[in-house]
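Schema walk-through. Below, the input block comes first and the output block second. Nothing else is stored per chain. Lengths vary across the set, and this one has 540 residues.
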Amino acid sequence: MKAALVGPIQQENLALGYLASYARRRGHDVRVVAYAYRKDLDATVDAILAAEPDLVGLGIAFQNNVDDYVALLRSLRAKGYRGHLTCGGHVGTFCWQELLAELPELDSVVRHDGEETLAEMLDTLARGEEPRGIAGLVWREGDRVVKGPVRAAAADLDDLPWPARSNVPYVVGGMTVDFLVTARGCVGECSYCSIAAYTSEQKRAYRLRAPEAVADEIAYAHHERGARVFFVQDDLFVLPGERAAVARMQKIKAAIDARGVGDVVFWIKGRPESVTPAVAKAAREMGAIHMFLGVENASAKRLAYLGRTHLPIHNESAIESCRAAGIVPSFNFMLFDPDCSLDDVEATLAMASEHLDLPWNLCRTEVYSGTALRDRLAAEGRLQGDWRSWGYRMRDERAEVLFRILRVSFHERALAIDSLLNRLISLSFARQLHAHFLPSAATAALDAAVTELGVQVRRETVAALREARDHVLAGDLRDAEAMRRFAIEQGLRLGARDMPLRARTESLWESFHGRGRSMMPQRARGPRRARGEFGVASGS
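--- output ---
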């Protein structure tokens, strides 16, 4: 059978890639179609219809763009598509009732890991039957919605074929980047995170691939695709125990070397409480030059509220361990949560101001379907919105007003997916790649320019955040007009300031890309047709 799997591909959508390769191994014809933004709706619909698929699967990875996929499936039906329409991902796993209740255009929903479920659906369609009675699937029978049993998670990830990847490489700093999964799930049980909720029904919270299998895939990407840079998309790469974490990274390194892979580098992720000096040293010896740390907040009280298992002291020790090992850590500060105060916000701003040379961004704790935080807010009568977009009002009125101000004034600086601070994280990674692969006086000068720019922007960011906090502390919360006026005026000031800063960021980004393409060996720079946007930071 023919299938089209649709989802965002800002980097590489390995989730859809695994589905496609597994179904292909079962004899089906499956293609992946990119759809990230509403502006691409018509082109995406046309591409799907041209493929004449028997099944269209929508990979709805992000709750905040559900409506983009609703528009897509309705447009497909309006233009005459009569095949089977299904969806999956985190949204489908938790919101299958709402999806099927509100969208008669949708035939079914796939829950949890979908490789075997999708293949069985296509096998069923090949027999001329409607997909029903399949584990991991929810389907319609007349006016009823029937939920199949939860499909057990695959015990051996190495039995899965490697994910299908784009033929157009992703490039950072003029160097080919490939994306990799070495594990599924996470050992954490953070209250705001849908990963723990996603795996809870499957009874396997965390599964690892064998180091030798990981090295086989790295060797293929290196020798056949020219990849010198690997972005590990695991929810958690660093194991929770020091001995186990060090041993695994040493085994991966040994297996890579045994396969003739030369000098390659990695972007990995870790929890602060797991990153000791020995772990950071082993990570660097494996080739890691960048680690996204789950710092989240600088208040012990807020970390406990969020279900984190580390303390502020672990944040600092992990950062220091990374610095000592020659790894650049980056992180997102979750400034706000439902019960935070302005004192909590200041504690995190104080930490941010101590690490202006490191790439970081900031956000609010969001609420996702299936999470403990969502259930907690519902039980407290504080949950707002619906399954498309949950929200809340903070207990502390001044914290709530401060966030509302920042939603206006800091959108382009910090909160948008292509915000200046996110772009600086990507730029910092490009800087690291050139420092590693192309050390020279010219590289050192560019390195200094990127560091100076980042420190300047982050210093100004902390100052502007404190300006907004002070305004809220001193102001009359009942004077909504004064608060709105401040938000707009601060936003205009930041916007004017950001224009030359963005221009410098773009110029440096293009400089790294051009130098990489001209100075790296042909195999490592990729073909002329490549994707090289700032989206590498969105993976964190």
